[in-house]
Design brief:
Strand order of the largest sheet: 4-1-5-6
Helix content: 40-55%
Largest sheet: 4 strands, mixed
Radius of gyration: 31 Å
Oligomer: single chain
Length: 187
């Protein structure tokens, strides 16, 4: 008997060849780094692009917050009164936002949403804040409204912008909002 014979009697020549080839492949490490690189690269690039996209979104949110503060400041001192100020406020906000060379809020005049809820201050002062509501959102789109502004009015100002995802696989938007609550001066 041959002691070196480790194949079963029914094993054929092609099966023996496949088993030997698999054994050689398990011992051979050439090309392993290239294969690992090819597998990992798409995930790494997606992660890098996602970080870039989130940075752009946070920068757009900061622009929106600054614009809301500036709008609240002008409303608070009585620059805008009554209920026909929406287009003027949006124009002022958009000119302030787009003054930089790189504009993160595209089509500001049409894509920026302004919602103002106002209520008389009441007695005790600040009672109107309990009657203010935030903007309704339906399917990721914020409703626009404008409350009547006057002296000593409690005001909730909300700006909304649907930030479009540019790089991440798939498309869509994220609604960015900035809310400021304040009381107008007695002017």
């Amino acid at each position: 008997m041959n002691a070196r014979h480790d194949a079963s009697p029914e094993e054929t020549q092609p099966m023996r060849f496949v088993r030997c080839a698999m054994g050689r492949l398990r011992r051979n490490n050439r090309g392993g780094a290239a294969l690992e690189f090819a597998i990992i690269l798409p995930f790494f690039l997606a992660f890098v692009f996602m970080i870039f996209e989130l940075g752009m979104m946070f920068a757009a949110q900061e622009l929106l917050d600054n614009a809301a503060r500036d709008a609240a400041r002008t409303i608070r001192i009585g620059t805008f009164v009554g209920n026909s100020y929406s287009s003027t406020v949006k124009t002022a906000i958009c000119s302030n936002i787009s003054s930089s060379s790189f504009n993160l809020i595209q089509s500001c005049g049409t894509s920026l949403k302004l919602y103002v809820s106002a209520s008389a201050s009441g007695s005790p002062t600040g009672l109107g804040f309990t009657q203010l509501t935030t903007a309704p959102v339906s399917a990721g789109v914020m409703t626009e409204a404008q409350g009547t502004l006057a002296a000593k009015t409690d005001v909730l100002l909300e700006l909304g912008y649907s930030f479009p995802w540019l790089i991440v696989i798939g498309s869509g938007t994220t609604l960015l909002t900035s809310i400021i609550v304040f009381q107008t001066e007695p002017y």
